[in-house]
Specification:
The complex is a heterodimer of chains A (about 110) and B (about 110). Chain A has about 110 residues and is mostly beta strands. Chain A has strands spanning about 5, 10-15, 20-25, 30-40, 45-50, 55-60, 60-65, 70-75, 85-95, 100, 105-110. Chain A is about 0% helix and about 55% strand. In chain A, strand 4 and strand 5 (about 45-50) form a beta hairpin. Chain B starts with a strand and ends with a strand. The chains are: A mainly beta (about 110), B mainly beta (about 110).
Amino acid sequence: DQQVKQNSPSLSVQEGRISILNCDYTNSMFDYFLWYKKYPAEGPTFLISISSIKDKNEDGRFTVFLNKSAKHLSLHIVPSQPGDSAVYFCAASGGGNEKLTFGTGTRLTIIP
Amino acid sequence: NAGVTQTPKFQVLKTGQSMTLQCAQDMNHEYMSWYRQDPGMGLRLIHYSVGAGITDQGEVPNGYNVSRSTTEDFPLRLLSAAPSQTSVYFCASTKSETQYFGPGTRLLVL
């Protein structure tokens, strides 16, 4: 049972445009959400997070939106740059537990 | 400050062989975990530890053992490797709900 779902395995976006990556979750106990970025042959690196008490968190070109009623979050990258080409994982934790549940990832390709 | 380090980077094993994947962190984090990454499966939790002397099972623990004798080290042991354990393994340590990952160990079991 996949509790965190990333339904788009891949996404291609023109450089300079907005990239929108989506994530859905099913577990109501999740109250903290994170996005990780992964380059080939490297470990995932933390990108941005959001607590369930917020509906938006912004850090430079990256913004995460949380819709609790829909159990949906999204990562917006604007403007997209070639260095943003990577696999992006959505992750969630909750219930006072530091265990993370990851989605299956979305491969983002930025086209120059 | 090296963060999270993992050795080896790459390993080939024959079915039935045993090995230990090493993981160390120098950030004094209490919480550490091991994941495996397989195509189309994302990152799946194998085992985790909330502090020295304490370990627990994750989502896919079968075939793996862990121990946590110090805060810094969290080795993962494969007692009898199987082809199904061919994967990329990531160790992570956690501070304030953010996990910091090592560079990974790519394991091939023939």
